Amino acid sequence: MRISTIRQRSVHQAVRRRRSKQSPIPTRTIEAPSITPHFSEDLECDAIVVECQSGLAQIKITNGTTTETMRYDCSLSGQKTQSVNIMPEDFDQSKPLRLEILGCNGRVKRCSNAWKMVIPDVVRIPNSKIILRKQSAIGNDLYSANDVQSAKDDDETDAELDGHKWAVMLQERGADGKLSRAKTIDLRVGAILDGAVVYYEDGHSTPCGLRLRHDGSTHQFGGSSSRTLHIPSGVDVVKVEVNKYGWGHRVLGGISMTLSDGTKAGTLNSCRFAGLASEDSAVKVLEAGAGEKIVGFFGNSGYYTQEFGIITGPKDVELPARTYDMAELQNIQTKDWARNMY
Fold first, then answer.
1. What percent of the chain has pLDDT over 90?
2. In this predicted structure, what is the pLDDT of residue 30?
3. Taking every annotated instance into account, which residue ranges of this chain make up the domain F5/8 type C (predicted)?
4. How far, in Å, CA of 155 to CA of 107, rounded?
Protein backbone atom coordinates (compact mmCIF):
# COMPACT_ATOMS: atom_id res chain seq x y z
CA MET A 1 0.00 0.00 0.00
CA ARG A 2 1.31 3.41 -0.93
CA ILE A 3 1.45 5.66 2.11
CA SER A 4 1.84 9.40 1.78
CA THR A 5 1.70 12.12 4.35
CA ILE A 6 -1.10 14.61 4.61
CA ARG A 7 1.37 17.33 3.58
CA GLN A 8 2.06 15.62 0.27
CA ARG A 9 -1.60 15.63 -0.70
CA SER A 10 -4.31 18.01 0.42
CA VAL A 11 -7.18 16.48 2.35
CA HIS A 12 -9.48 17.95 -0.30
CA GLN A 13 -7.73 15.71 -2.82
CA ALA A 14 -7.56 12.73 -0.46
CA VAL A 15 -11.30 12.30 -0.01
CA ARG A 16 -13.74 11.32 -2.68
CA ARG A 17 -17.12 12.97 -2.49
CA ARG A 18 -20.36 11.33 -3.52
CA ARG A 19 -23.36 13.65 -3.86
CA SER A 20 -26.83 12.36 -3.11
CA LYS A 21 -29.82 13.13 -5.30
CA GLN A 22 -31.66 16.26 -4.30
CA SER A 23 -34.86 15.50 -2.39
CA PRO A 24 -37.96 17.47 -3.34
CA ILE A 25 -39.04 17.57 0.30
CA PRO A 26 -36.19 18.51 2.69
CA THR A 27 -35.99 16.14 5.63
CA ARG A 28 -33.81 16.05 8.72
CA THR A 29 -33.02 12.86 10.62
CA ILE A 30 -31.80 12.59 14.20
CA GLU A 31 -29.16 9.91 13.53
CA ALA A 32 -25.55 10.83 14.18
CA PRO A 33 -23.04 10.60 11.31
CA SER A 34 -21.35 7.24 10.88
CA ILE A 35 -17.72 6.26 10.22
CA THR A 36 -17.42 2.83 8.56
CA PRO A 37 -14.27 1.10 7.28
CA HIS A 38 -14.77 -0.69 3.94
CA PHE A 39 -12.13 -3.31 3.20
CA SER A 40 -11.60 -4.90 -0.21
CA GLU A 41 -9.27 -7.50 -1.65
CA ASP A 42 -7.72 -4.72 -3.77
CA LEU A 43 -5.51 -2.68 -1.44
CA GLU A 44 -6.08 0.44 -3.54
CA CYS A 45 -9.83 0.25 -2.88
CA ASP A 46 -9.77 0.38 0.93
CA ALA A 47 -11.87 3.27 2.18
CA ILE A 48 -13.28 4.84 5.33
CA VAL A 49 -16.83 5.90 4.50
CA VAL A 50 -18.29 8.90 6.33
CA GLU A 51 -22.07 9.24 6.05
CA CYS A 52 -24.97 11.21 7.49
CA GLN A 53 -28.59 10.86 6.35
CA SER A 54 -29.36 14.50 7.10
CA GLY A 55 -26.29 15.61 5.16
CA LEU A 56 -22.69 16.35 6.09
CA ALA A 57 -21.94 19.84 7.37
CA GLN A 58 -18.24 19.49 8.15
CA ILE A 59 -15.43 16.95 8.21
CA LYS A 60 -12.34 17.71 10.26
CA ILE A 61 -9.36 15.44 9.63
CA THR A 62 -6.19 15.48 11.74
CA ASN A 63 -3.26 13.33 10.62
CA GLY A 64 -0.48 13.69 13.18
CA THR A 65 -0.01 17.44 13.74
CA THR A 66 -1.73 18.60 10.55
CA THR A 67 -5.43 19.48 10.48
CA GLU A 68 -7.71 20.43 7.61
CA THR A 69 -11.46 21.03 7.58
CA MET A 70 -13.96 20.53 4.76
CA ARG A 71 -17.35 22.25 4.88
CA TYR A 72 -20.44 21.33 2.88
CA ASP A 73 -23.71 23.04 1.93
CA CYS A 74 -26.41 22.43 4.55
CA SER A 75 -29.03 24.81 3.19
CA LEU A 76 -32.50 23.38 2.63
CA SER A 77 -32.30 24.37 -1.03
CA GLY A 78 -28.83 22.96 -1.57
CA GLN A 79 -27.78 19.56 -2.89
CA LYS A 80 -26.50 17.97 0.30
CA THR A 81 -23.50 15.70 0.48
CA GLN A 82 -24.47 12.56 2.40
CA SER A 83 -21.38 10.41 1.85
CA VAL A 84 -17.63 10.94 1.53
CA ASN A 85 -14.90 8.33 1.02
CA ILE A 86 -11.62 8.87 2.88
CA MET A 87 -8.82 6.87 1.26
CA PRO A 88 -6.35 5.40 3.83
CA GLU A 89 -3.55 5.21 1.25
CA ASP A 90 -3.45 9.02 1.08
CA PHE A 91 -2.46 9.49 4.73
CA ASP A 92 0.50 8.69 6.94
CA GLN A 93 -0.51 5.53 8.81
CA SER A 94 2.35 5.94 11.27
CA LYS A 95 0.46 8.90 12.76
CA PRO A 96 -3.04 8.92 14.30
CA LEU A 97 -5.90 9.81 11.96
CA ARG A 98 -8.53 11.69 13.97
CA LEU A 99 -11.95 12.32 12.43
CA GLU A 100 -14.62 14.73 13.69
CA ILE A 101 -17.84 14.68 11.67
CA LEU A 102 -20.64 17.25 12.01
CA GLY A 103 -24.03 16.44 10.48
CA CYS A 104 -26.52 19.01 9.21
CA ASN A 105 -28.73 17.98 12.13
CA GLY A 106 -26.11 19.11 14.65
CA ARG A 107 -25.05 15.58 15.68
CA VAL A 108 -21.33 14.89 15.97
CA LYS A 109 -19.34 11.69 15.49
CA ARG A 110 -15.70 11.46 16.60
CA CYS A 111 -13.00 8.86 16.16
CA SER A 112 -9.67 9.47 17.90
CA ASN A 113 -7.73 7.17 15.54
CA ALA A 114 -9.39 5.75 12.44
CA TRP A 115 -6.50 3.33 11.85
CA LYS A 116 -7.81 1.28 14.78
CA MET A 117 -11.04 0.83 12.86
CA VAL A 118 -9.32 -0.34 9.67
CA ILE A 119 -5.98 -1.97 10.37
CA PRO A 120 -6.83 -4.31 13.29
CA ASP A 121 -9.72 -5.92 11.36
CA VAL A 122 -7.47 -7.75 8.89
CA VAL A 123 -4.06 -9.37 8.81
CA ARG A 124 -2.31 -9.62 5.44
CA ILE A 125 0.15 -12.50 5.13
CA PRO A 126 3.39 -11.16 3.55
CA ASN A 127 4.13 -12.35 -0.01
CA SER A 128 0.71 -13.95 -0.19
CA LYS A 129 -2.83 -13.12 -1.29
CA ILE A 130 -4.20 -14.70 1.89
CA ILE A 131 -6.00 -12.39 4.29
CA LEU A 132 -7.02 -13.20 7.87
CA ARG A 133 -9.95 -11.33 9.40
CA LYS A 134 -10.60 -10.33 13.01
CA GLN A 135 -13.77 -9.68 14.99
CA SER A 136 -14.21 -9.36 18.74
CA ALA A 137 -16.34 -8.54 21.75
CA ILE A 138 -15.24 -5.70 24.04
CA GLY A 139 -16.35 -5.41 27.66
CA ASN A 140 -19.12 -2.92 28.41
CA ASP A 141 -19.72 -0.99 31.61
CA LEU A 142 -22.34 -2.99 33.51
CA TYR A 143 -23.46 -0.04 35.59
CA SER A 144 -24.41 2.06 32.55
CA ALA A 145 -25.86 -0.80 30.50
CA ASN A 146 -29.36 0.67 30.68
CA ASP A 147 -28.32 4.31 30.33
CA VAL A 148 -29.74 4.63 26.81
CA GLN A 149 -29.28 8.39 26.52
CA SER A 150 -25.66 8.14 27.67
CA ALA A 151 -25.00 5.46 25.05
CA LYS A 152 -26.75 7.53 22.36
CA ASP A 153 -24.70 10.64 23.09
CA ASP A 154 -21.37 8.82 23.36
CA ASP A 155 -19.98 9.42 19.89
CA GLU A 156 -16.42 8.46 20.87
CA THR A 157 -16.76 4.75 20.12
CA ASP A 158 -13.13 3.67 19.96
CA ALA A 159 -12.25 4.03 23.64
CA GLU A 160 -8.73 2.94 24.45
CA LEU A 161 -8.00 -0.44 26.01
CA ASP A 162 -4.83 -0.20 28.07
CA GLY A 163 -4.09 -3.89 28.60
CA HIS A 164 -1.78 -6.42 26.98
CA LYS A 165 -2.60 -7.14 23.33
CA TRP A 166 -2.22 -10.83 22.52
CA ALA A 167 -2.96 -13.38 19.78
CA VAL A 168 -2.96 -17.18 19.93
CA MET A 169 -3.24 -19.39 16.83
CA LEU A 170 -4.82 -22.86 16.84
CA GLN A 171 -1.57 -24.10 15.33
CA GLU A 172 1.64 -22.90 16.94
CA ARG A 173 5.33 -23.66 16.83
CA GLY A 174 6.69 -25.59 19.78
CA ALA A 175 10.21 -25.53 21.22
CA ASP A 176 11.46 -27.66 18.31
CA GLY A 177 10.14 -25.14 15.77
CA LYS A 178 7.55 -27.54 14.40
CA LEU A 179 3.86 -26.67 14.14
CA SER A 180 1.57 -28.35 16.64
CA ARG A 181 -2.25 -28.52 16.66
CA ALA A 182 -4.36 -27.22 19.54
CA LYS A 183 -5.97 -30.18 21.30
CA THR A 184 -7.54 -28.55 24.40
CA ILE A 185 -8.80 -25.09 25.39
CA ASP A 186 -9.20 -24.33 29.09
CA LEU A 187 -11.82 -21.57 29.39
CA ARG A 188 -11.02 -19.75 32.64
CA VAL A 189 -14.19 -18.17 34.01
CA GLY A 190 -15.14 -17.21 37.54
CA ALA A 191 -17.34 -14.24 38.36
CA ILE A 192 -15.92 -12.74 35.14
CA LEU A 193 -13.73 -13.87 32.22
CA ASP A 194 -10.18 -14.38 33.46
CA GLY A 195 -8.90 -15.69 30.13
CA ALA A 196 -8.15 -19.01 28.47
CA VAL A 197 -5.23 -21.38 27.92
CA VAL A 198 -4.63 -23.31 24.68
CA TYR A 199 -2.84 -26.66 25.03
CA TYR A 200 -1.08 -28.20 22.01
CA GLU A 201 -0.35 -31.79 21.01
CA ASP A 202 3.39 -31.43 21.62
CA GLY A 203 2.75 -30.56 25.29
CA HIS A 204 3.31 -26.78 25.33
CA SER A 205 0.60 -24.25 26.15
CA THR A 206 -0.09 -20.56 25.48
CA PRO A 207 -2.39 -18.25 27.45
CA CYS A 208 -5.09 -16.07 25.91
CA GLY A 209 -4.21 -13.16 28.17
CA LEU A 210 -1.28 -12.17 30.35
CA ARG A 211 1.87 -14.27 30.46
CA LEU A 212 3.53 -12.31 33.26
CA ARG A 213 2.46 -10.36 36.33
CA HIS A 214 3.92 -6.96 37.28
CA ASP A 215 6.62 -8.63 39.41
CA GLY A 216 7.75 -10.75 36.46
CA SER A 217 6.25 -14.00 37.76
CA THR A 218 4.05 -16.21 35.59
CA HIS A 219 0.44 -15.08 35.53
CA GLN A 220 -2.06 -17.69 36.75
CA PHE A 221 -5.72 -17.48 35.76
CA GLY A 222 -8.43 -17.92 38.36
CA GLY A 223 -11.89 -19.22 37.54
CA SER A 224 -14.16 -21.26 39.80
CA SER A 225 -16.51 -21.95 36.86
CA SER A 226 -13.84 -22.89 34.33
CA ARG A 227 -14.56 -25.51 31.68
CA THR A 228 -12.31 -27.55 29.37
CA LEU A 229 -12.99 -28.06 25.66
CA HIS A 230 -11.27 -31.02 23.97
CA ILE A 231 -10.74 -30.67 20.20
CA PRO A 232 -10.51 -33.99 18.29
CA SER A 233 -8.41 -34.14 15.14
CA GLY A 234 -10.37 -32.90 12.12
CA VAL A 235 -12.79 -30.87 14.27
CA ASP A 236 -12.86 -27.06 14.24
CA VAL A 237 -14.02 -24.33 16.61
CA VAL A 238 -17.03 -22.85 14.78
CA LYS A 239 -18.57 -20.42 17.29
CA VAL A 240 -17.42 -18.30 20.23
CA GLU A 241 -19.99 -16.58 22.46
CA VAL A 242 -18.83 -13.83 24.81
CA ASN A 243 -20.76 -12.05 27.56
CA LYS A 244 -19.91 -8.34 27.23
CA TYR A 245 -20.94 -7.44 30.79
CA GLY A 246 -18.58 -8.35 33.65
CA TRP A 247 -18.18 -6.77 37.04
CA GLY A 248 -16.79 -3.25 36.74
CA HIS A 249 -15.67 -1.24 33.73
CA ARG A 250 -14.86 -2.88 30.35
CA VAL A 251 -14.42 -6.42 31.69
CA LEU A 252 -15.99 -9.39 29.91
CA GLY A 253 -18.33 -11.62 31.89
CA GLY A 254 -17.91 -15.10 30.41
CA ILE A 255 -17.26 -17.24 27.35
CA SER A 256 -18.51 -20.35 25.56
CA MET A 257 -17.15 -22.20 22.52
CA THR A 258 -18.81 -24.65 20.13
CA LEU A 259 -17.08 -27.23 17.90
CA SER A 260 -18.07 -28.45 14.44
CA ASP A 261 -19.16 -31.79 15.96
CA GLY A 262 -21.67 -29.98 18.21
CA THR A 263 -19.63 -30.14 21.42
CA LYS A 264 -19.99 -27.01 23.54
CA ALA A 265 -18.23 -25.85 26.71
CA GLY A 266 -17.83 -22.69 28.76
CA THR A 267 -19.62 -20.39 31.20
CA LEU A 268 -21.35 -17.19 30.06
CA ASN A 269 -22.70 -15.89 33.39
CA SER A 270 -25.36 -14.08 31.34
CA CYS A 271 -28.28 -14.89 33.66
CA ARG A 272 -26.73 -12.70 36.37
CA PHE A 273 -27.62 -9.57 34.46
CA ALA A 274 -31.35 -10.14 34.03
CA GLY A 275 -33.02 -6.74 34.23
CA LEU A 276 -29.79 -4.93 33.34
CA ALA A 277 -29.23 -6.26 29.85
CA SER A 278 -31.13 -8.94 27.92
CA GLU A 279 -29.22 -12.07 27.05
CA ASP A 280 -29.45 -11.20 23.34
CA SER A 281 -27.78 -7.83 23.90
CA ALA A 282 -25.32 -9.08 26.52
CA VAL A 283 -23.88 -11.99 24.52
CA LYS A 284 -21.95 -11.39 21.29
CA VAL A 285 -21.68 -14.33 18.90
CA LEU A 286 -18.46 -14.59 16.89
CA GLU A 287 -18.46 -16.87 13.84
CA ALA A 288 -16.42 -17.23 10.67
CA GLY A 289 -17.85 -15.88 7.42
CA ALA A 290 -18.74 -17.95 4.37
CA GLY A 291 -15.77 -19.94 3.10
CA GLU A 292 -13.76 -19.24 6.27
CA LYS A 293 -12.86 -20.98 9.51
CA ILE A 294 -11.58 -19.89 12.92
CA VAL A 295 -7.78 -20.22 12.99
CA GLY A 296 -6.97 -18.35 16.21
CA PHE A 297 -7.97 -15.91 18.92
CA PHE A 298 -6.89 -12.40 19.90
CA GLY A 299 -7.71 -9.88 22.58
CA ASN A 300 -6.69 -7.35 25.20
CA SER A 301 -6.18 -8.25 28.85
CA GLY A 302 -5.22 -6.78 32.18
CA TYR A 303 -5.59 -9.17 35.09
CA TYR A 304 -9.00 -9.87 33.54
CA THR A 305 -10.07 -9.95 29.89
CA GLN A 306 -11.29 -6.70 28.31
CA GLU A 307 -11.52 -7.97 24.72
CA PHE A 308 -11.78 -11.46 23.24
CA GLY A 309 -12.02 -12.15 19.51
CA ILE A 310 -11.55 -14.66 16.72
CA ILE A 311 -9.14 -14.73 13.79
CA THR A 312 -10.56 -16.33 10.64
CA GLY A 313 -8.93 -17.50 7.43
CA PRO A 314 -9.78 -19.38 4.22
CA LYS A 315 -11.49 -22.67 5.01
CA ASP A 316 -9.82 -24.93 2.46
CA VAL A 317 -6.43 -23.22 2.17
CA GLU A 318 -3.38 -24.12 4.23
CA LEU A 319 -1.80 -21.02 5.73
CA PRO A 320 1.84 -20.38 4.74
CA ALA A 321 4.38 -21.41 7.38
CA ARG A 322 5.51 -17.78 7.76
CA THR A 323 2.05 -16.95 9.15
CA TYR A 324 3.04 -18.51 12.46
CA ASP A 325 6.19 -16.39 12.71
CA MET A 326 4.33 -13.06 12.53
CA ALA A 327 4.60 -11.13 15.80
CA GLU A 328 1.01 -9.85 15.55
CA LEU A 329 -0.22 -13.46 15.59
CA GLN A 330 1.64 -14.41 18.77
CA ASN A 331 1.33 -13.71 22.48
CA ILE A 332 4.49 -11.74 23.20
CA GLN A 333 4.81 -10.00 26.56
CA THR A 334 8.06 -8.67 27.99
CA LYS A 335 8.94 -8.34 31.67
CA ASP A 336 9.42 -4.58 31.23
CA TRP A 337 5.85 -4.27 29.94
CA ALA A 338 4.53 -6.30 32.86
CA ARG A 339 6.32 -4.13 35.44
CA ASN A 340 4.76 -0.98 34.01
CA MET A 341 1.28 -2.47 33.73
CA TYR A 342 -0.05 -0.93 36.92
1. 50
2. 74
3. 88-104
4. 9
Task: Give the number of other Cβ atoms within 10 Å of residue 291's Cβ.
Answer: 11
State which of 8-17, 132-141, 300-309 shows the largest mean pLDDT.
300-309
Sheet strand arrangement including 34-38:
15-19, 81-86, 47-51, 34-38
pLDDT tens-place string over residues 10-32: 555 555 555 444 444 445 567 88
- In this prediction, residue 150 carries a pLDDT of 38
CATH number given to 11-121: 2.60.40
pTM for this entry: 0.66
> In the 8-state DSSP scheme, what is residue 218?
B
Q: How far apart are CA 311 and CA 340, in angstroms?
A: 28
- SS3 assignment, position 14: helix
Would you put residue 127 in left (φ > 0), alpha (ψ -120 to 50) or beta?
left
Neighbouring-strand partners of residue 58: 71, 102
Q: Would you call 35 helix, strand, or coil by DSSP?
A: strand
Distance CA 73, CA 90 (A): 25
Domain 125-339 = CATH 2.30.180.10: no
What are the extents of the domains in the chain? 11-121, 125-339
Decide if 105 contacts 80 (C-beta within 8 A): no
